[in-house]
Amino acid sequence: MHIKVASYNIHKAVGLDRRRDPDRILTVLKEIDADVVALQECDRRFGRRMAVLPLDAIQASTDYVPVPLSMKPDSLGWHGNALLVRKGIALVEAAPVPLPVLEPRGAIRADLDAGGYRFRVIGMHLDLSGLRRRHQIDSVVAHCAGCAASMPTVLMGDLNEWAPRGGCFRAFDSQWRVLTPGRSFPSRRPIAQLDRIIVSREWGVLGTNVHHSPLSAIGSDHLPVFASLDLPKK
Known about the structure:
The chain is of the alpha+beta class and 234 residues long. It has one domain (2-230): Endonuclease/exonuclease/phosphatase (Deoxyribonuclease I, Chain A). The chain has helices at 22-32, 55-61, 130-146, 216-219, and strands at 2-9, 36-40, 64-66, 82-86, 90-97, 106-114, 117-125, 153-158, 176-179, 195-200, 204-210, 225-230. The strands form 2 sheets. A 6-stranded mixed β-sheet has the order 3-4-2-1-12-11, with helices on one face. Strands 5-6-7-8-10-9 form a 6-stranded mixed β-sheet, with helices on one face. The longest helix is centred in the middle third of the chain and has 17 residues, at 130-146. The protein starts with a strand and ends with a strand. The mean pLDDT is 91.
């Protein structure tokens, strides 16, 4: 059984043409066609922190259900982070992941069940500070270790790490595999691999890539990244 996961910093749905276009983002999500998507910057930053992707539009035009984690009535996620799960994949448990922060950053967790195969996904958007990023990764890994049930895990998001190796990636031991889908920022001419996917050792990795299409090239300042994974045997 295969699972495709993706991460996308949607930049509050504001594209390089400076237009806020939620429909464009939803179309890009349909192009990617992942089973689980981690979104970053999916809420407006100020005021009521309103979601830039309306819930009714997600339900009407995609095959996704947002993981219910919003702490504000008009928001989609937690500190701009959201997880979208394909219909038919069951939600077992969801929770925010506490992070040490100086700025509004966050991480969220969902434990999922796909046909009896249980796995964990954490979406995150890390700090601009290298030291703070390392502390945040330590917090995410500790959170996973402290969960009541152990299960195959995927971490993904905008890590804000410019170094191709080292940096905050030193926080991952041999239990984790840091994937490198490719250059995803800035979207018009990508030079940095800020968007990453990290998997626990149980997963088989079939492939990773950056989703580059005419719409994704202008829909946000980041390009989406994805990975095709093998679920371990029961």
